[in-house]
């Protein structure tokens, strides 16, 4: 996984980004004030790694084009303790995606689509990127 990310990003200085839940998990989240910041370089210099359905841990890693990765600070809607730091990925060019995604998301082809990465996913960026 690290070798692929190193080759895909062109550097051995990698930083890992993951979604993390802090404290108690609230039932609903909202984005914290000033809670969104860019991760990695604009234009897709990220390598996400998704777990696959195998009897042991296997991850599928790839370097998608036309993506923007974000770190999003979330807080519980009702206040109190708990929250999360979530990794989000926005795909700006979805023109080649399978129609099933658009049906599932009730979106149109070519529309920008953003999603959070679950806790067991990894996102690799070059270490110098913010």
TrEMBL record:
Residues 1-127 form the BURP domain. InterPro entries: BURP (IPR044816), BURP_dom (IPR004873). Pfam families: BURP. This is BURP domain-containing protein 4. It comes from Dichanthelium oligosanthes. The lineage of its organism: Eukaryota, Viridiplantae, Streptophyta, Embryophyta, Tracheophyta.
């Amino acid at each position: 996984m690290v070798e692929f990310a190193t080759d895909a990003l062109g550097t051995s200085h990698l930083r890992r980004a993951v979604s993390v839940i802090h404290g108690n998990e609230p039932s609903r989240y909202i984005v914290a004030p000033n809670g969104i910041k860019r991760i990695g370089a604009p234009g897709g210099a990220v390598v996400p790694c998704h777990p696959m359905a195998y009897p042991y841990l296997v991850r599928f890693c790839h370097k998608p084009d036309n993506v923007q990765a974000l770190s999003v600070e979330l807080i519980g809607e009702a206040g109190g303790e708990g929250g999360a730091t979530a990794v989000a990925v926005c795909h700006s060019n979805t023109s080649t995606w399978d129609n099933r995604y658009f049906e599932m998301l009730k979106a149109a082809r070519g529309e920008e689509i953003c999603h959070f990465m679950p806790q067991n996913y990894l996102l690799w960026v070059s270490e110098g990127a913010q």
